[in-house]
Amino acid sequence: QVQLVESGGGLVQAGGSLRLSCAASGRTFSSVAMGWFRQAPGKEREFVSAISWSGGSRYYADSVKGRFTISRDNAKNTVYLQMNSLKPEDTAVYYCAAGMGPIATVTDRLYNYWGQGTQVTVSS
């Protein structure tokens, strides 16, 4: 069993930055991939970023590439999402998720544990 708790969301002006954190409980954290997804009002959940168990592979949605950076600290059981140059279209609830295996993937059905989400609001 893995429990995930996100933090770091909030209200920021366009062009600003936020860093999301996701603290995980459970002994399997360091052996599985982790991902970030987001869901805006009235829209489907979408992939944002993913990182493999070792951090050696990272993937980003085209919409955030060059602005967001995913990282993880396996000693702290925590995954991070550094978000820079934020845009109003980044406004959403952001969820972290633990994968079923060590390989990073963009497919949400391959993540079996999810956090409760943290709201990110970017004002124009």
How would you briefly describe this protein structure?
With 124 residues, the chain is mainly β.
Class computed from helices, strands and strand pairing = mainly beta
Q: What kind of sheet is the major sheet?
A: 7 strands, mixed
Rg calculated over all Cα atoms: 13 Å
The chain-level mean pLDDT equals: 96
Helix coverage percent: under 10%
Topology order in helix (H) and strand (E) letters = EEEEEEEEEEE
Distance between the termini: 40 Å
Question: Using DSSP, what is the number of strands?
Answer: 11
What overall form do the CA principal axes indicate?
globular
Structure in words:
The protein is mostly beta strands and 124 residues long. It has strands at residues 3-7, 10-13, 18-25, 34-39, 46-51, 58-60, 68-73, 78-83, 92-99, 111-114, 118-123. The termini are far apart. The model has no long low-confidence stretch (mean pLDDT 96).
